[in-house]
Design goal:
Monomer. The chain is an alpha/beta fold and 666 residues long. 31% of the residues lie in helices and 20% in strands.
C-alpha cells in the first residue's frame, strides 16, 4: 500500500473504491446542506471542510443547499448568515440551491407513491401514533387508517395541500413495515400540515415535506454522488435508501445516479454547546448579546472574537475525519489561532491594569519616538515609531516591592528592560492612605547593552490612548455542560466570561480598522471589535499567549479514590513529557502542552538552562524545553547568549514541531 493511499481518510477510500469500480470522476458531486434555523457553529465547520475539501481534491462541484422545510423555525436572516460564514471560511459553492426549489417535484412523487400503495394519509392523534409505533424492543401495530383506499388517500392529500384542514388533523406516511426493527422504517411521516409563511415560497404551500423525505430526494435531484452526514444520521440511512429506490423507478431516465449516504463523527468540543436550540436559548434569554457574541461558538462569534479562517481550517485538518464520536479539547482550537496569529499579527503595546512609573532622571519636557519591530515572524512587516516620555504606565502585576529570584520583572532595587527602550531601576514607591502603591519612581540608564533578566511592555502616559478592552473567557465552566442528567446546561455558565477593562494603548492604534488583529505584547491576541470607532476604540481578546485553563481538570467523583499529589519538582514533571511529546496525536499533544505551560510557572531559568544542550536526537525534550522557556520569557526573563543560541539552533532543525515553537520565541 502506497504512502498516499495510507494517508487517505475513510471517506476518500470509499470514493477511490467507487472510482475504481467504474464511477466516472466527472460524476462526483458533493453538497453542504444546512437547515437555516440558526447560525452555523464550530461543529458545522467539520462538515463544511469535509465536503468542500473533497470538492477541491477531486475538482468536483459542491452545492450549498438549504434544507428549508420547516417555516416555523427558518428565516432569511439565517440564510444570509450561513452564506457569509461559508464564504468567509474561504469556500466557493457551485450552486446555491434550496429544498423548497423541489416542493412541486416532491409532491408529485408523493402522489405517485400513494397511487402505488406505498403512502397513505393517517388521521390519528400524535399520542395514538406514538403508542401504535411501538418501542425499540416491541414491534409496532398497524393503525386504523393504514389501509385506506388509494382514491381516499389522493383526495385527502390534495385537500391537505389546498388548506382545507387544520394543523395536526392529517399527515402523509410512507407505507413500509410497522414491525420493522428500525423504528424509523415504521411508516415514517412524509408530510405534515403547517400553515406558516415560508421565507421563499410565501403562502403557496399548506403542507411541508419532512426532512427524511426531502433530504435524500434533494440529493437525488441534484445527482449528488456522496451524501456525507454526521453519525446521528446512520440509523436514517436505511430510510434514505428506501425513499431513493422508490423514486428511482419514477425518474431514472432523468436522474440516472443514486446518491450514496456515508457518515462521519461530528465535531464535539469541550466547554462548548453545539445545539442550535440551546444556543438560541442563550440569545433569547440575553445571556449573550446575540448570535455573533464573541463568547458564542458560532462562526460569526469566532470571527468577531478575532479567529481567522485559516486557524479554523487548520483546526479541522488536525481533528481529521473519524468514524467514532469523541470530544476534542478546545485547547487545540485555541492553539491553532495562536499559531496563525503569531505569524501575522503586528506586535503593539497596551497596558490593561496601569501602574504609573516616573523616571526621575529623564527630562520633564523631553519625548522620543523610538523604533519598534512590527512582527519578528514577518520580515516584510517593517517597523513603527512609539513615543517615550518621563511618565509611563506598566502593568501592576509587573512590579513588586519585594520578590524572589523567580520574579523576572521590576522590584525595588532591581532593573528591567523596557521593550524597545531603556533599562530602568526601581528606587522607591509612592503609596496612598490605604497603603496601595500609586507610583514607582525609577531611574533610567541609556546603556542598553547591559544584561538584565526581565523585559516589560509599557505605554507613555502623555501619548496613551484610552481603549475599551473586552476580555472574553469560556462561556461554560464545565467540560460537557449539556451532559449532566437532571441538570440544565445553564447551571454551568461562567459568571466571569466577560470582563470589560478601561485600558491604555500606544497611539499607533488610533488608525486600527474594525477586524484588524494585534498581539498586545506579553498579554495575548486582540482584534478591533465592530463597536469600535476612531475616537472610542474597542478591542476583543481573541486568546491569551498561553492556556490559562490548563490545570482546571474536571472535578473527581467523590466515590472515586483521590489521586495522590505529585510532589516531584515541576521541571522533572515537564521532562517526563519529552520522550514521546512529538509522537502524540494532535489533541493529546495540545493537552500535554497545556500542562507543561502550567508547570513552567514553577520553574526557574537555572532549571531550564541545562536542557539547552540536549542531544539533537531527543527532539521531544528540546520541544518541551522550548515551551518552558517561552513561559519564562513571557514572565519577563531577558534573552541572553545561551537562549539565543538554543533558539537559533532549533530554527535550523528538521523537526517541524520544534521549529514552530522556536519561531514563537525568535
Amino acid at each position: 500500500m502506497s504512502e498516499e493511499t495510507k494517508s487517505l481518510n475513510f471517506i476518500e477510500h470509499i470514493i477511490e473504491e467507487d472510482l475504481a469500480n467504474g464511477l466516472a470522476k466527472d460524476k462526483l458531486r458533493f453538497r453542504f446542506p444546512p437547515e437555516p434555523n440558526g447560525y452555523l457553529h464550530i461543529g458545522h465547520t467539520k462538515a463544511i471542510g469535509i465536503s468542500f475539501g473533497l470538492g477541491l481534491k477531486y475538482n468536483a462541484p459542491v452545492n450549498l443547499r438549504f434544507d428549508d422545510t420547516n417555516p416555523a423555525k427558518e428565516e432569511q436572516e439565517y440564510v444570509d448568515a450561513i452564506k457569509k460564514d461559508v464564504a468567509w471560511l474561504g469556500y466557493q459553492w457551485e450552486n446555491e440551491l434550496y429544498s423548497s426549489d423541489y416542493f412541486q417535484q416532491l409532491y408529485d412523487w408523493a402522489v405517485q407513491l400513494i397511487k402505488d400503495g406505498k403512502a397513505y394519509v393517517d388521521s390519528q392523534s400524535s399520542e395514538a401514533m406514538a403508542e401504535q409505533k411501538g418501542t425499540p424492543t416491541q414491534p409496532g401495530v398497524d393503525g386504523p387508517y393504514r389501509n385506506r383506499s388509494v382514491e381516499e388517500n389522493l383526495d385527502l392529500f390534495e385537500r391537505m395541500k389546498n388548506g382545507e384542514f387544520n394543523e395536526g388533523e392529517h399527515i402523509l406516511r410512507a407505507k413500509i413495515d410497522m414491525q420493522h426493527p428500525n423504528m424509523l422504517m415504521r411508516d415514517p411521516i412524509m408530510y405534515r400540515i403547517l400553515k406558516k409563511h415560508h421565507h421563499r415560497t410565501g403562502n403557496d404551500w399548506c403542507i411541508y415535506p419532512m426532512y427524511d423525505w426531502t433530504h435524500g430526494e434533494s440529493d437525488y435531484i441534484e445527482q449528488i454522488s456522496h451524501s456525507l452526514c454526521s453519525l446521528e444520521f446512520k440509523p436514517h440511512r436505511e430510510l434514505y435508501d428506501w425513499f431513493k429506490e422508490q423514486v428511482y423507478d419514477y425518474a431514472k431516465e432523468t436522474y440516472p445516479m443514486q446518491p450514496k449516504q456515508r457518515e462521519f463523527a461530528r465535531l464535539n468540543l469541550s466547554y462548548t454547546i453545539m445545539s442550535k436550540r440551546k444556543l438560541l436559548k442563550l440569545v433569547e434569554e440575553k445571556v449573550v448579546s446575540g448570535w455573533d457574541d464573541p463568547r458564542m461558538p458560532t462562526i460569526s462569534g469566532l470571527r468577531r472574537r478575532g479567529y481567522t479562517p485559516n486557524s479554523i481550517r487548520q483546526f479541522i485538518e488536525k481533528v481529521g475525519v473519524a468514524k467514532r464520536e469523541n470530544v476534542i479539547d478546545v485547547a487545540l482550537l485555541e492553539f491553532c489561532v495562536r499559531e496563525d496569529l503569531n505569524k501575522t499579527a503586528p506586535r503593539v503595546m497596551a497596558v490593561l491594569d496601569p501602574l504609573k512609573v516616573v523616571i526621575t532622571n529623564y527630562p520633564d519636557d523631553k519625548e522620543e519616538w523610538l523604533e519598534a519591530e512590527n512582527n519578528p515572524e514577518d520580515d516584510s512587516a517593517g517597523f513603527r515609531k512609539v513615543p517615550f516620555s518621563k511618565e509611563i504606565y506598566i502593568e501592576k502585576e509587573d512590579f513588586k516591592e519585594e520578590a524572589g529570584s523567580k520574579f523576572f520583572r521590576l522590584k525595588l532595587g532591581g532593573e528591567v528592560r523596557l521593550k524597545n527602550a531603556y533599562i530602568i531601576k526601581a528606587e522607591r514607591v509612592v503609596k496612598d492612605a490605604e497603603g496601595n502603591i500609586t507610583e514607582v519612581h525609577c531611574t533610567y540608564d541609556t546603556d542598553t547593552s547591559k544584561k538584565v533578566k526581565g523585559t516589560l511592555h509599557w505605554v507613555s502616559i502623555k501619548h496613551a490612548v484610552k481603549a475599551e478592552v473586552r476580555e472574553y473567557d469560556r462561556l461554560f465552566m464545565d467540560e460537557a455542560p449539556d451532559s449532566h442528567e437532571g441538570k440544565d446546561f445553564m447551571e454551568f455558565l461562567n459568571p466571569n466570561s466577560l470582563n470589560i477593562i478601561n485600558a491604555f494603548v500606544e497611539p499607533s492604534l488610533t488608525e486600527a480598522k474594525v477586524g484588524e488583529q494585534f498581539q498586545f505584547q506579553r498579554l495575548g491576541y486582540f482584534n478591533v471589535d465592530d463597536d469600535s470607532k476612531s475616537d472610542a476604540l474597542v478591542f476583543n481578546k481573541t486568546v491569551g499567549l498561553r492556556d490559562s485553563w490548563a490545570k482546571q481538570a474536571p472535578k473527581q467523583n467523590q466515590n472515586q479514590p483521590q489521586k495522590q499529589t505529585n510532589n516531584r519538582p515541576a521541571i522533572e514533571q515537564i521532562k517526563s513529557f519529552g520522550k514521546k511529546y512529538d509522537r502524540l496525536p494532535d489533541d493529546a499533544r495540545a493537552k500535554a502542552k497545556a500542562e507543561i505551560l502550567e508547570l513552567a510557572k514553577d520553574v526557574s531559568y537555572e532549571d531550564v538552562e541545562p536542557l539547552f544542550n540536549t542531544s539533537k536526537k531527543k527532539s521531544g525534550t528540546r520541544i518541551i524545553t522550548m515551551i518552558t522557556l517561552g513561559v519564562l520569557l513571557k514572565n519577563g526573563l531577558e534573552k541572553n547568549e545561551a537562549i539565543n543560541e538554543f533558539i537559533n539552533t532549533a530554527l535550523e532543525d528538521k523537526n517541524k514541531l520544534l521549529v514552530e515553537e522556536a519561531q514563537q520565541l525568535a
